[in-house]
Each structure stands twice: as structure tokens, then as C-alpha cells.
Design goal:
The protein is an alpha+beta fold. It contains 16 helices and 11 strands.
Length: 468
């Protein structure tokens, strides 16, 4: 496994929930959406690893310091905890397991970089309100098809307390706020950049530009399994594959046979994502196959996998999109108005509108603190990518007429109402605008990597005993 795959496992197994926003919930000149392997995703993207007996029964050894970052220690138990999650995630995804000492070093370097960024955030006065943490908490639960209570019961079985999980969420939000402030101003996109991107999209068709959605059935093989156990597990996977090839419903087969979490909760679907976010085994075995193709059983260190190509998209600029027509109320936060207080005020507006005692547009004209207030909060028709990810995610979950719960962004707290939705053909100028946004996101990844390296280079890091 290469360092990129290891970094992916570390990032996805950690509680990575980030926030990004702009005035009115819009992208100023195409603000970042996050994603990739350098910048964390800006919307909740947590896949909880399957419960592991090792996580709850392993004896806890005496702790010791493995590194000091600007006089702040990182302990062996911190590395062990993060390492266990990384290993569980790699096993569930079917990726090849790297040597444990190599993975431990990658985890330690990730923790060092996070610690440096958190120190910088504190020195810069960056803060995250409890309401934003609660919003991220709910987002993680929803992304994993759970209630918040179910999420914490699951985390408790894996040895993580509610307080520790919320602290990790808060730390991720602090890092994202710092990145937004320090990195976004560094990125400029020229017309030449857009022209080059469009030419590349017309000419290329490689894996790096592909997004795929795979159906996945995983039959786990226990560690140190006997040959008889391996044969029994392989036979079970083969039976699942045979049922699918005979025309069986994938979701039903996944629920019956799969040991992976998505088998029970998402009908076996892993979701549309860039190909480089899948294990190499999955990508290589499905590369070039048409939608609907079945592959497997395939063997990995985790067990046997059966895959179905559900959807395949070549990244690029679409010609037709689904547009949203929305309006919102924005309350800016600061010393005089916390996010919690703003959310309570907007929740009251929502109850009044839904109860028929107030008009959304009138409330927006009176209270909203951005340029759309004079229009009753009306944002007009918007193409995908116009809004920051958390705003767009909330909007996409609404039906026409629905009003969202209060939503935190970098500039305050929003209340959103979806008015209409339609499919529309993009003009040439709109296609270039979308291409410009994509180029900006790529440049943000590069700028973040450079910034993180600079920050790491200025830090004093002393390595002690290696993690065990």
C-alpha cells in the first residue's frame, strides 16, 4: 500500500468533520468544498469501522510520550487509539494492510500535523461554538444512518466516550476554520487555468477523473483462520455471487450475506466517490467493466468481496444540472450573538412560519444580515456548486416548501427554505464557471499541502520512544 492509501485510511477512520462557508452560504469565487486526501471533506464523511473485539478487550499498557510538539506531548496511547481505527478501516475496505510500524509512523505524523494546527488555531483566537459541534455530531450520525444516541452507543462499544468524540469533532472544526482563513486567500484561478482544465477533460479518460459507485458484499475471514474456515467463508461468498448472477436483488443479497456495515444499512452500496478513494483491489478488478457487471469473489486480507458496478461517471463539466431556487435568513455571530443563541432565534422563526403566524420573506427583510435581505432572502436559481457544501447538503435534503433546521456556516447561522427545483441546460458561461470552481478546489488542495508543510516546518518536534 502506498502512502496515499495509508493517509486515506487514517483520515477516514478519524472523526473528520469540517465546516466551510461564505457570506450568504455562497462560494465567493468558488470557495472550497474540501475532499481529496489533503484537505478533509467539508461535509460529514465518517464511516465508522465495524466493532472490533480487539478495540474493547486489548489490555491497556503503561503510557509514555512518543513525541513532543512545541512542548506539547503526544502519547503512545493516542497513537494506539488512532492506529486501531486506521487498521479497522483498512480491513473493512479490503485494502492491503501495510506493515504495522509503517502505519504507526503515518499515524504519528498525522497527529503531529493536527497538533501543530490546533496550536496555531488557539494562538490565532479561533473558536468553535458548542452548537457547531452538535451540528457536526448530528451530521456524523445521519451519514452513518443512525440517531445520535445510537452513534454514542456504538462508539462506547469501541471504547470512545461522548466527551472524547465531541472533542475530536471540535478539533477538526478548529482546524478547518484555520485552513479557511490561512489558505483560501492564496488561491487564484485564471482563464488560462480554466482553458487547460477543459482541454484535459476532453482528452482524458483515466482513473483519476472517474467516479464510481460499487455494490459490495464482504464475507469476513477471521485472523488466523484455519483452511477449513477459509473454505467455508469462500463458499459463502461464492453463494452470494451465484445468487446475484442469477438475477437476485443486490440489496437483499447484501443484507443476507455481507458482514460490512453498508450491507445492512445501505443495501451494500458504497456510494459515488472518486476512484482513487477505493482500494486498489476494487478499482483494478472493475476497471473498464460496464455498469451492471459483477466481480468476485475476490480475496483480500479482510476476507472475500463480491462487487457490482452500479454507476460510473467521468469527471468533467456537465451540460445539464438540477438547479435549486432557495431563500434564507442569515444571522451573523460574534461577541454579541453566539451560534447557540442565533440558532435558537432562527428555530423560533421556523416555528412561526410553519405555524402560519409569520412570513419567511418578511422575517428575512427584517432580520437577515446579508445582501439578499431586501429581496426577502431570495437567492435566485443556483447551479450545483454555488453554495458551500454544508449549505448545499441541507438544501438538497429539502423538498419544495420545506424549511431546514438552523445551519452553521463560517459567517453565521442560516435558516433555509427551498422554493423550487428544476432541471436546466447550462450556458457556455455557466459551464466555465463550474470548471473554474473545480480548478479552484484542486488548487486549494495544493495550497493546503504547501501551507501545512510550512506550518510543520516552523514547529519544534522532538521524537522520543517509537510508538508500540
Amino acid at each position: 500500500m502506498n502512502h496515499r492509501a495509508i493517509a486515506l485510511a487514517i483520515a477516514t477512520s478519524a472523526a473528520v468533520v469540517s465546516q466551510g462557508a461564505a457570506a450568504q452560504g455562497l462560494r465567493p469565487s468558488g470557495a472550497a468544498t474540501g475532499g481529496g486526501l489533503s484537505r478533509p471533506a467539508a461535509t460529514p464523511s465518517i464511516t465508522l469501522p465495524a466493532p472490533s473485539a480487539a478495540a474493547t478487550t486489548a489490555p491497556r499498557q503503561a503510557d509514555f510520550i512518543v513525541a513532543v510538539v512545541n512542548s506539547e506531548p503526544i502519547t503512545n496511547n493516542e497513537v494506539r487509539s488512532r492506529l486501531a481505527r486506521a487498521e479497522a478501516q483498512l480491513a473493512q475496505q479490503g485494502g492491503a494492510m501495510p506493515p504495522r510500524d509503517l502505519l504507526a509512523r503515518e499515524v504519528l505524523e498525522r497527529l503531529i500535523l493536527e497538533r501543530v494546527q490546533l496550536q496555531q488555531a488557539r494562538e490565532s483566537g479561533v473558536k468553535v461554538d458548542d452548537f457547531a459541534v452538535s451540528q457536526a455530531e448530528q451530521g456524523v450520525a445521519q451519514q452513518n444512518s443512525m440517531t445520535v444516541d445510537e452513534l454514542y452507543r456504538r462508539l462506547a462499544r469501541d471504547g470512545m466516550s461522548k466527551e472524547r468524540f465531541r472533542e475530536e469533532l471540535r478539533n477538526q472544526l478548529l482546524q478547518q476554520k484555520l485552513r479557511e482563513r490561512e489558505v483560501e486567500a492564496r488561491v487564484k484561478v485564471t482563464d488560462l487555468d480554466v482553458d487547460q482544465y477543459l482541454r484535459e477533460q476532453q482528452q482524458g479518460n483515466d482513473v483519476s477523473t472517474m467516479e464510481i459507485n460499487l455494490g459490495h458484499v464482504l464475507v469476513l475471514v477471521p485472523e488466523n483462520a484455519t483452511p477449513a474456515q477459509v473454505a467455508e467463508r469462500q463458499a459463502r461468498a461464492q453463494l452470494a455471487a451465484d445468487k446475484l448472477r442469477a438475477g437476485g436483488d443486490f440489496a437483499a443479497v447484501a443484507r443476507e450475506f455481507s458482514d460490512a456495515q453498508e450491507g445492512q444499512r445501505a443495501g451494500g452500496l458504497l456510494g459515488l466517490r472518486p476512484a482513487d478513494r477505493y482500494p486498489e483491489l476494487f478499482v483494478n478488478s472493475t476497471k473498464g467493466l460496464p455498469v451492471g457487471s459483477l466481480v468476485g469473489p475476490l480475496r483480500s486480507p479482510a476476507g472475500f468481496h463480491v462487487l457490482k458496478v452500479v454507476e460510473r461517471v467521468t469527471a468533467g463539466v456537465p451540460t445539464t444540472v438540477v438547479q435549486n431556487h432557495a431563500r434564507h435568513i442569515l444571522l451573523r455571530t460574534g461577541p454579541q450573538l453566539t451560534e447557540t443563541a442565533a440558532a435558537a432565534r432562527l428555530a423560533d422563526y421556523r416555528r412561526r412560519v410553519q405555524g402560519g403566524t409569520a412570513d419567511f420573506a418578511a422575517l428575512a427583510r427584517e432580520h437577515s444580515q446579508d445582501g439578499s435581505a431586501k429581496e426577502g432572502g431570495d437567492l435566485g436559481w443556483a447551479n450545483p456548486g454555488r453554495y458551500v457544501p454544508e449549505f448545499e447538503q441541507a438544501l438538497n435534503a429539502l423538498k419544495p416548501g420545506d424549511i431546514s433546521e438552523p445551519l452553521v456556516s463560517r459567517f453565521g447561522v442560516h435558516l433555509i427554505q427551498l422554493l423550487e427545483r428544476r432541471e436546466a441546460k447550462l450556458t457556455q458561461r455557466e459551464q466555465r464557471d463550474m470548471a473554474r470552481s473545480t480548478v479552484r478546489e484542486k488548487k486549494l488542495d495544493e495550497a493546503y499541502a504547501t501551507w501545512a508543510q510550512e506550518l510543520r516546518g516552523r514547529a519544534y518536534v522532538e521524537y522520543r520512544d517509537p510508538p508500540q
